[in-house]
Amino acid sequence: MATACATDEKRPSTGETIDYNECNHPIYILKGLNELKALQLFTDVTLVVGNREYPCHKAVLASCSPYFRAMFTSDMKERNADRVQIKDVQVDVMDVIMRFIYTGKVSISPQNVQAIFEGASLLQVLSVQDICTRYFERLLSPNNCLGILDYADTHGCKELQRKARKMILNNFAEVCKSEEFLILPKDRLIEILASDLSIDNEEIVCEAITTWVNHDRAQREISLADLIAHVRLPYLLPAYLGKASNDALLKQVHLGAAKDKMLERTRTYYAKSREKAVTSLSAVRPRNYTQVLLTVGGQDVDLQPANCIWCFDPVKEKWSYLYELPDELFDWDLAVTSLGTDVFIAGKRPLISSLTSAFPAWIYKGVNQRWMKVLLPQGLEMAEFAVTSDGVGIIYVLGGYDSNMQNLATVRRYVAATNTWDEIAPMLMAVSNLSATICEGKIYAIGGYNGVEDTSVIQCYDPTLDKWSYVRQLPMTVRDAVALTINDSVYLLAGVAKSLVYHYNPKLNKWKELEGMTKDVFMYGATVCNGDIYAVGGYSGDYFDIEVNKTIQMYDAEDDRWTATESMPHGLHSLRCTTMYRFAALGS
Fold this sequence. Notes:
The chain has about 600 residues and is of the alpha+beta class. It has 17 helices and 29 strands. Residues about 255-285 have low confidence and may be disordered.
């Protein structure tokens, strides 16, 4: 008996038109086609694989495979053929694929997954390819991820490549003990060594290199210098450096001679040179770090200030209490941005008291777990400004308004290494309540209040020219939005409930709206952590019935998809979020 997907509980009136949807109809069609195939009724082509024949229907094949669609619709000899020879596909693989095409069912095992994947790839049965890819992902382990990565590269499986690389980076200490590691090509090994491996200490990298070289020392010894170049030497322990200096193999690259220099701290800023103040950490940054999400301040369900910092590790999915805010920052609406292992926090507007003559500003030193007071320019008066940073050592404070409620176009730059300020070219439009982010070295100041109304204007600063310009406006006006950067794109979380998400491509100078959040919330915090956007907390409902959320909503930019979990230890709203590098072991 047919079953409708949804039924109308009300009794229909006479003559009323009702739309029905039979959910099982596709199943009945597929079952019927499979029965016709078994009886060889209405079949119009026979596929020949080895000594096996498969009578089937061209329409069915073409609907499941671009390969067959092209074969039966383009000007090919097979278009009108009754029999078609299929080469390079095994009979047992063709059995599996034909069963899937006519039933939607497939059985995958470690023994057949590779052959089925290759057959499905040849015949372009995309659904079977996807099933095999997901099966490979389930098989991933430190013992086989190198081989699976190579296989994924060969067959262009981007998602499998991404997950295999993630397995390698997160489990390198185990991966380098595998049989696959010993036969790794040099180029692949260098690619891995140049990455940010999740390891407890840099000594693991040195040991992995010597293990790989010693496996075929006669052929590989010549590669040692190229490999050692990717060891982040400042983070080797002094005791290990002393040992390595006398190692028969490592001695060849004169490791000991540079020992004192290699013990220098990596995060060195250059106070007298503006160009040198922004220095890349990629070559000297410790590998043994994770990006963690921080929530700063905010209010709880009782509207009481949360004058502290909480830390969330997305990899371990674990929350921990980090630190209390300095007394000077209590009860302020905060502006927050990160500086690698440090966090800059300033009060941009009091939550309770009136505007004071200057905002308080501090830096939390993540490595030393202490607070450092930020020296402010004399007479600096600002509120509702925006902050952003280059992530290394320079912070930009943009716009806002002064104690006379006059909007500001000024932009001040703070150099963390010297605890000093200077000014750069002012924005073209004075705005408060704006948001800002840095993308490909340029500052984007987005929206805000211009003294009369909210604006959709985007102002862009080029530091090489010390000049501002307008770029393509937003499709809507915004204030107090959240601007974030992933790779070479800007993402803006905006809208009445801040559930709208926009993407800006600087190269195309084009905005587009993306999928909105899973849950509409107000006054949440947001940041980019490990390449994904996290929107944290906030409240939903109206003024008389507010629900303070424990929700974390995560946006995967590659899949353009939001997911949500209720995992915060305490509900918070009006909070700020940022991302900080946290190191497991720095070496001393």
